[in-house]
Design brief:
Helix content: 40-55%
Number of helices: 16
Largest sheet: 5 strands, mixed
Low-confidence stretches: 278-282, 372-376
Distance between the termini: 76 Å
Radius of gyration: 32 Å
Mean pLDDT: 81
Strand order of the largest sheet: 3-1-5-6-7
Number of domains: 3
Shape: elongated
Structural class: alpha/beta
C-alpha cells in the first residue's frame, strides 16, 4: 500500500521541544512497519507554519496524490502537523477521499477509513484551531499592552532610527537623509523625484536594502515616527488580507522618542501629499495645470482637459484647441455644453496668485476651505468636550479597579488634556479672526511658492498651484470662483 508521509516543523523552537523532523520520520517509519505497510515516501516541510495550506512540500504531495489515484495512506505524527485550522483539515481530508487516500495520525491513533476516525478528526481539528486562535489572541493582547506602555518597541525600526534594548535611537547618517527628503518635499518636489534623488544622487537604500520608490517615499515621510510619536495597530489581518484599522483603535503615544522632524514640518508634508492624492493619474500630465481642480458651477462635476482639432483652409494648417470641458455634459448628458479655454483660465489663475502674493497683510478676504478641525460647530465641540470628560472618568475607574497602571493613566490624562485644550481654543476663537488668519496664511503661502508657480517647468508649477487652491468653480464658461486651500 502506497504511503505518503508529511513531517513538518515551522521553527527551531519546535525542534527543541521534541517535534524535530528526524524524530517525526522515525515515528512514521516505525508505525508503517508495525502496520505492515510499504515504506513511506516522505514530503519533508521545513520552516513553514500550518496557518494555511500554501506550503511547497504539501502542494507537491497533493499533486502526487492526484497523479496516482489508486489509493493509499497519508500519514503525519500529529494532526497539527497537517494543519491547525479545522476548515483546512476538512478540505484536505475531502481531497484525500476523492482520490482514495485515507488520513492517519500515528501518535493520536486514528484513521479516516472508519466513522470513528472521521469523528475524532473533526474533534481534534476543532481543538487545534481553538488553541491557535487563543495563542494569537494572547500574543495580540500582550503586544497591545507593550505598545500602550511605550516602554518597549515591538516593531521593526523605520529608516532614521535604530532599536537598542527595545527603545528608539536616532541613526545619525540615516536621519540626515531623512531631513534632506523633508526639505525636498517642503520645496514641492514629488515622491517620484525624491526617490530618484535617493537612488541615483545620494546612492542610499531603504532600511531593508532595497531601492526607493515613490510609494515608499510617500508613506515614509508621513510616518508619525519621524515626529517623535509612536503609533501602533494601524493595520490588522482579516483572513489573508491586511486592512487599515479605524483610527479609534490606534495606540498613540505622543512624544515617545526623539523626533527627526518638527510636528509643524511633518504636518505640512502630510498636507502636501494629501493634496496631490486628489490629482490621480492626471498629476504627471503637464498639458493641463489645473487638472482635478476645475469644477462645473451648474452640475458640480469635474471639468477635465479636452483637446479639439480644427483645420484652417485660409492658413492651410491644423489648429489645436485646449479646453476644460464639463464632464457632466460630456459623459453623463446631465449638463449643457460649456467650457473654459485652457490658456485663458490658467493665465487668470496665475495672475490672481501673483496679486495675492504681493498683497499687504490684513488686506485680503478670500474664500478659504476650512480644515476639518475648524469646520465643526460649537455644539459639536461642546459635545466632544463632554465625551472627553466621560472618557477620562472611565480611565480613572479602570485605574481604581487595577485594570491599568498609573503610567497608563498618566498617558491617557495627558492625551485627554491636549485634546481638551485644542477644543477649548477652537471655541474661544472668533470666526472673523479665523477668516482673516486663513486669508493671511494663503498670502504667505502664495508668496513662498510664487517662483514655483511661475516656473517654466509646468509640472513644478502644477504642484505649487495645488498647494494653494482647493477648487476652481466655472459658471457659464466665464465666471470663475476660487476656493483657496486652508492651512
Amino acid at each position: 500500500m502506497k504511503v505518503f508521509a508529511y513531517p513538518r516543523v515551522s521553527t527551531d523552537e519546535q525542534a527543541e521541544k521534541g517535534n524535530s523532523l528526524f524524530e517525526q520520520q522515525e515515528r512514521i517509519a516505525a508505525y508503517c512497519k508495525a502496520m505492515g505497510w510499504d515504506d513511506p515516501i516522505f514530503f519533508i516541510e521545513d520552516g513553514y507554519s500550518a496557518k494555511n495550506t500554501n506550503r511547497p512540500k504539501l502542494t507537491e504531495m497533493l499533486d502526487r496524490i492526484k497523479g496516482e489515484p489508486d489509493g493509499g495512506i497519508v500519514i503525519t505524527t500529529k494532526l497539527d502537523r497537517l494543519s491547525r485550522k479545522l476548515f483546512d483539515i476538512l478540505k484536505l481530508n475531502e481531497y484525500f477521499n476523492k482520490y482514495n487516500y485515507n488520513y492517519v495520525s500515528a501518535t493520536e491513533g486514528f484513521d479516516t477509513s472508519t466513522p470513528a476516525g472521521r469523528l475524532v478528526l473533526q474533534m481534534l481539528g476543532m481543538v487545534a484551531e481553538f488553541e491557535r486562535e487563543r495563542i494569537s489572541e494572547r500574543v495580540k493582547d500582550n503586544m497591545l499592552s507593550l505598545a500602550k506602555s511605550g516602554k518597549r518597541i515591538i516593531t521593526r525600526p523605520c529608516y532614521g532610527y535604530d532599536i537598542i534594548d527595545g527603545k528608539y535611537f536616532i541613526n545619525i547618517e540615516e536621519s540626515l537623509i531623512s531631513k534632506k527628503m523633508a526639505i525636498w518635499a517642503l520645496k514641492g518636489e514629488g515622491s517620484r523625484s525624491i526617490a530618484w534623488r535617493l537612488n541615483f544622487e545620494e546612492g542610499v537604500k531603504t532600511k531593508e536594502g532595497n531601492m526607493w520608490s515613490d510609494k515608499v517615499v510617500r508613506e515614509y515621510l508621513q510616518r508619525e515616527t519621524l515626529a517623535g510619536d509612536l503609533v501602533y495597530n494601524k493595520t490588522k489581518r482579516v483572513g489573508s488580507k491586511i486592512v487599515k484599522t479605524d483610527p479609534s483603535e490606534w495606540v498613540v503615544v505622543k512624544d515617545h522618542h526623539d523626533p527627526i522632524l518638527t510636528h509643524e514640518d511633518h504636518d505640512k508634508i502630510i498636507e502636501l501629499f494629501q493634496s496631490r492624492k486628489q490629482v490621480g493619474k492626471h498629476f504627471s500630465n503637464e498639458t493641463y495645470l489645473l487638472s482635478g481642480l476645475v469644477v462645473c458651477g451648474h452640475c458640480a462635476h469635474k471639468m477635465n482637459g479636452k483637446m479639439n482639432r480644427s483645420f484652417s483652409k485660409r492658413l492651410n494648417q491644423e489648429n489645436l484647441h485646449y479646453q476644460y470641458l464639463c464632464d457632466g455634459y460630456l459623459k453623463k448628458a446631465i449638463c449643457y455644453h460649456h467650457y473654459a479655454k485652457r490658456d485663458d483660465l490658467e493665465s487668470l489663475i496665475i495672475e490672481r496668485i501673483k496679486e495675492i502674493a504681493k498683497a499687504s497683510p490684513g488686506s485680503l478676504k478670500l474664500m478659504v476651505s476650512k480644515p476639518e478641525s475648524t469646520s465643526i460647530d460649537k455644539e459639536s465641540i461642546r459635545s466632544k468636550l463632554a465625551k472627553l470628560d466621560k472618557k477620562m472618568q472611565k480611565q480613572i475607574d479602570a485605574f481604581n479597579d487595577d485594570l491599568i497602571t498609573s503610567h497608563d493613566l498618566k498617558i491617557a490624562s495627558q492625551r485627554v488634556n491636549e485634546e481638551r485644550q485644542a477644543l477649548t481654543k477652537m471655541l474661544e476663537e472668533s470666526e472673523s479672526d479665523k477668516e482673516q488668519q486663513a486669508s493671511d496664511d494663503v498670502r504667505k503661502k502664495a508668496k513662498n511658492t510664487l517662483n514655483d508657480v511661475l516656473s517654466i517647468d509646468r509640472l513644478k508649477s502644477k504642484q505649487a498651484i495645488r498647494q494653494l487652491i482647493e477648487k476652481i468653480e466655472i459658471t457659464n464658461g466665464s465666471e470663475v470662483r476660487i476656493t483657496w486651500r486652508g492651512y
